[in-house]
Design brief:
This protein has helices spanning about 25-35, 50-60, 110-120, 140-145, and strands spanning about 15, 65-70, 75-80, 90-100, 125-130, 150-160, 165-175. By secondary structure, it is α+β, with helices and mostly antiparallel strands. A hairpin with a 2-residue loop joins strand 6 and strand 7. Helix 1 (about 25-35) crosses helix 2 (about 50-60). The radius of gyration is 18 Å and the shape is globular.
Length: about 180
């Protein structure tokens, strides 16, 4: 078959390290959640410079900050961050996953979270925490369950957004050997 008769090649979803050039798309995706959802308790979208600084803070800790790239279009992003700053927490990280508006349920979040977990399991971390914004966030809860996260508790009415009190369910999964051996 000659190249002119070949079917067109469809772009593939690629989960890759983010670049500074991706931050414009990341900021747009995050702004939607800030303004329209309870996945984050921020109420004002951070400016571009703040998003650059947040990404750099993650990278400075040697943690992954990934994007889902589909033919040059950023469809979502995720990253791991320190769970807490005190030394005893150094083996525990928190995940964050955001998918572009309208693309939920199409595998973007799963590709991102799967990639993030794989990258984190290759590092020194042993536990990953998911802090879900809102008990009603069934999509995030289901995504995390799919990847082995288990519910560990809920902080009731700790956020106030859109005129109502909001819970934060916590979920957790081990990374690599988890707590079955010393680091």
């Amino acid at each position: 078959m000659s190249p002119s008769n070949s079917p067109p090649v469809e772009p593939a979803l690629v989960v890759r390290d983010s670049t500074e050039a991706d931050v414009t798309s990341i900021q747009r995706i995050y702004a939607h959640y800030v303004l329209n959802a309870l996945a984050t308790f921020e109420e004002t979208p951070p400016p571009f410079e703040e998003m650059i600084a947040r990404r750099q803070k993650v990278l400075d800790l040697d943690l992954p900050y990934l994007v889902a790239d589909f033919g040059g279009e950023i469809l979502g992003y995720c990253y791991a961050s320190a769970y807490h700053g005190r030394a005893a927490y150094r083996h525990t990280i928190e995940d964050s996953v955001y998918v572009a508006n309208g693309l939920g349920g199409r595998g973007v979040g799963a590709a991102l979270l799967g990639g993030l977990i794989a990258r984190c399991e290759a590092g020194p971390w042993r536990q990953m925490i998911a802090i879900i914004g809102d008990s009603g966030n069934a999509a995030s809860t289901a995504l995390h369950r799919r990847f082995g996260f288990e519910p560990i508790g809920t902080l009731r009415s700790v956020g106030f957004k859109f005129g109502r009190w909001v819970d934060t369910p916590f979920m957790q999964r081990g990374l690599g050997p988890g707590d079955h051996s010393l680091p």
